[in-house]
Amino acid sequence: MSNQEVFESSKRVILDLLDKEFPGTLDLDIFYIEDKSSNRVLKNYDDVMRSWDEGCSSSDNSIEKELLLYRETIRFLTDEQLISHKSEDVEDQRTYSECKLTSKGKELWKKESSNIAEIAVLQPNFMGVGIDLKKAHAWFKSFMKKN
Prior knowledge:
This protein is of the alpha+beta class and 147 residues long. The protein folds into two domains: 3-101; 109-146. It has helices at residues 3-21, 45-53, 62-79, 103-120, 133-146; strands spanning 26-29, 83-84, 95-101, 122-125, 128-131. The chain has a three-stranded antiparallel β-sheet. Strands 4-5 form a two-stranded antiparallel ribbon. Helix 1 packs across helix 3 (62-79) and helix 4 (103-120) runs antiparallel to helix 5. The radius of gyration is 18 Å and the shape is globular.
C-alpha cells in the first residue's frame, strides 16, 4: 500500500473508533489501533512478528513501516485539530492517551461516513436489489478529487 492509502485507511479507522466513543475518550496504541478481531482493517504488531518469521528484517519490513505511518496519521489529525489527546508527543511515541474527536473532527467524520453510507444503500433494480453504480461512481470521482 502507498503512504496515502495507509493514511486514508488509518484515518477512517481512527475517526470511526473515536466517533463510537464520542464524547468519551479512547487510548490509541499504534501497534494495536483496532482490537484483535478477525475483521480488522489495519495491520498490527502481530503481523510484524509474523513477517519476521517469514524472513523480513526491521530494515525492509513494509508492515512495520505501515504501523509507523499510523503515528503520522494521529499527528496529522491532531495538527489539523480533528482529534485531541493528553499525551506529550515525542519522537518514538507509541501510545496516545485520552484521544477524542473535536467538534471539527466530528463534523468531518459525519460528512465522510454519510457519503460512504449513501452509496452503499441498496436500491431496487430489474435484478432485485443492488448498489446504485452511478451514485457509487459519482461519489468515487468526487472523493478522488478531494484527496
